[in-house]
């Protein structure tokens, strides 16, 4: 598989589909991942959390209410926290109908399924460890899962990120061969310390400037930014020198890059 997580030219950027092609398909599902690949994404970003029985699943919110039909299938289990329900309970849910009827009966995927689908689709993965403070030990569980998929333990294909920087220090200690990204914007004063264990910083796009990107690059850090859906903002960020852009609309970024 080609290197998918590293930009190859100065006037381009890695095209990262946010939760899959989530403007057109239900976020954090296999159809969204596959659509992202067909819309020209290089990499698919998704959010990983843990069920009550310690299985790893894709879900952004810490509850299932917004993006599944948990409320009607499991009445009485409000607020439908991911960590309160078993994988068997979660697998009964429909994670597509809330988005459109076309995606009815789409299931919440496991990390295992998502890695297989990404492999089949030829895209890289930006794996976000979401709310790790709710799931003590999730870093080790993700490492164990990745070791079952040795093809993914490669800096060319996978980056692991979190807003929780302590979690990323833990992850790096457990599996140093997989690159780490810190979500958010470390101060320029913090960047040298960050560069000791992280490979990337991923700030919000309104928090960036050319000088910040240059400072990170001088320290050997790559810079990705999220979540950018307008072509004009994408153009501006490429001009800042970012290495990658996380977007709900990978087709828009693909057209921009390909001219
Ligand atoms: O990859 C960046 C982005 O996914 C972080 O924010 O809330 O969409 O997980 P969020
Ligand atoms: Ca995310």
TrEMBL record:
PANTHER family: GLYCEROPHOSPHODIESTER PHOSPHODIESTERASE, CYTOPLASMIC, GLYCEROPHOSPHORYL DIESTER PHOSPHODIESTERASE. Keywords: Signal. GO terms for biological process: lipid metabolic process. InterPro entries: GP_PDE_dom, PLC-like_Pdiesterase_TIM-brl. GO terms for molecular function: phosphoric diester hydrolase activity. This is Glycerophosphoryl diester phosphodiesterase. It holds the Pfam family GDPD. The lineage of its organism: Bacteria, Bacillati, Actinomycetota, Actinomycetes, Streptosporangiales. Residues 13-257 form the GP-PDE domain. It comes from Nonomuraea jiangxiensis. PROSITE patterns: GP_PDE.
